[in-house]
Design goal:
It is a single chain. The chain has helices spanning 2-9, 12-35, 40-65, 68-96, 98-114, 121-160. It has 182 residues and is mainly α. The relative contact order is 0.17. It has one domain (2-160). α4 (68-96) packs antiparallel against α6 (121-160). The protein is built from six helices and no strands.
Length: 182
């Protein structure tokens, strides 16, 4: 009976529930960090938050189930939800600041033309859009990979802290020694 309880705690509902909760928390933390103008410290702080959240959620999940796999999967779901929130926020930021971005791209194209380079404004816009899309894809892939990997590392630690599974005796397996032949 104890083993069935452990299986339920490590099932898909457990993984999606805790992965979604931690993913939303991670996404909100990323949004809050992005609102501050910290320069390159923002990237370092963002990465540290990712690593800590993925490790702790992997540790928690494996502590509950005794399996490293659960820690990796909860980390993966956390990375998925957190990265989707970050991508949606980035798209909203780009959409709301579209006019400033367009002006900056037009100024860059004019500056390039003054320097004798033939770069049209539409080509620069295309490069910017492709760069943004690739950046968002890399962000999602990075968070998925870090979530699974660091979640598994947390799972390795958490597995050792999991309560031992009580063995259930199987009926009819009582061994009786044969009578001694003397």
């Amino acid at each position: 009976m104890q083993e069935q309880g452990m299986a339920c705690r490590g099932g898909a509902a457990f993984i999606w529930k805790w992965g979604a909760i931690c993913g939303v928390v991670l996404g909100v933390i990323q949004i809050i960090i992005s609102l501050f103008s910290l320069g390159s410290l923002k990237t370092i702080l963002d990465l540290l938050v990712w690593l800590i959240v993925f490790f702790v959620i992997g540790l928690f999940a494996a502590r509950q189930t005794g399996r490293v796999r659960t820690g990796a999967l909860v980390g993966l779901v956390t990375g998925l939800i957190g990265s989707l929130i970050a991508v949606i926020f980035a798209i909203v930021q780009i959409a709301t600041n579209g006019q400033q971005i367009t002006q900056a791209l037009n100024q860059a194209a004019q500056s390039a033309q003054h320097q004798g380079r033939s770069l049209s404004s539409s080509a620069l816009h295309t490069v910017a859009v492709v760069g943004i899309v690739l950046g968002l894809i890399v962000t999602v892939a990075l968070e998925l990979g870090l979530g699974a990997g660091i979640g598994a590392l947390g799972g390795l630690v958490g597995r050792r802290q999991a309560p031992p599974v009580a063995s259930t005796p199987v009926a009819g397996t009582v061994w009786t020694p044969p009578p001694s032949a003397q």
